[in-house]
């Protein structure tokens, strides 16, 4: 038999050597006291809609491929393999969702008590400084999400980007189609000059007239 996550013989990937060689986290299971209360798919969908949560896909890349690459909108992919072997990209993935300050909902395909998303929640709390009360798990995982008829997407597509922008991604630089307005504002600001010579001359003429009138009245 082969492992559905890494494709290697199960008897090899279930030991530490196999996990290290293939980056497979399938043998990892959450403990009974792992953080992350379970939330129903409909509740998580509501949080995503109002931008109050970030979803984290705890599956390995090969597992995502087996499901056709479908993920939850705006998800950040942090496999347990990244954690076990301290991927160089791990902090870059975690930092934006930490900064966002939203709830974190971790998920796998199945979303049961022993799923790895509990182990991921534990890592986020103990090693990455996430408060326990911000950590949740998706009950029933991606399978339950699909069964409820909720939106799935592919990482980087329109639906994924919209959710990422809404939930955790730092605002991007001004786009090119906004640049002309900015330039116009700059040009408008640059046209504010000191009073013209004509205005100053007029004012001086008024002062001179007043002085002349004063001389005539005193004469």
Question: How would you describe this structure in keywords?
Answer:
single chain, 219 residues, alpha/beta, two-stranded antiparallel sheet, 11 helices, 47% helix
Describe the protein's topology.
Elements (H helix, E strand, L loop, with lengths): L9 H4 L2 H7 L14 E3 L1 H9 L3 E5 L3 H6 L3 E2 L4 E2 L2 H5 L5 H11 L2 E5 L8 H11 L8 E4 L2 H7 L5 E2 L3 H10 L11 H12 L6 H22 L1
Parallel strand pairs: 1-6, 2-4, 2-5, 5-6
Antiparallel strand pairs: 3-7
Give the topology string: H per helix, E per strand. Answer: HHEHEHEEHHEHEHEHHH
Give a quick account of the main beta sheet: strands, pairing sense, barrel closure: 5 strands, parallel
Shape: globular
Helical coverage, percent range: 40-55%
Query: Strands of the largest sheet, in order across it?
Result: 1-6-5-2-4
The proportion of strand residues reads 5-15%
Task: Report how far apart the termini are.
Answer: 121 Å
How confident is the prediction overall: mean pLDDT? 74
Could you name the ranges where pLDDT drops below 50 across 5 or more consecutive residues? Answer: 16-23, 172-219
Number of extended strands: 7
Overview in brief:
The protein is of the alpha/beta class and 219 residues long.
